[in-house]
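This part of the workshop introduces the protein records we will be handling. A record pairs a protein's sequence with a compact description of its fold. As an example, a complete record with its sequence and its C-alpha cells follows.

_____
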Amino acid sequence: MDIELGIQNVARPVSFSTDASADEVSQIIEKAMADNRTINLTDDKGRRIVVPAGALGYALIGSETKHAVGFGAL
C-alpha cells in the first residue's frame, strides 16, 4: 500500500509503502488527529514514520489491489 503524507510548510510530501491495510492506516491517522498526538506508521522496510498530527496537511492512501505490469495485462 502506497502512502503519501503532506506536511504543512514542507514543500515535498513524505511517500512510502506499508504492509498495513488502508483501514489500519486510516484508523491510526484518525485516532492521532482526534487525540492531537503523533502519527506513527511503519513502512515495509521496518522504518518508522512519525508526524505530529497538527502538522498533517493531507494523507493519500493508495489502493490495496496490485496493478498488473506488462503486456499480459491487456
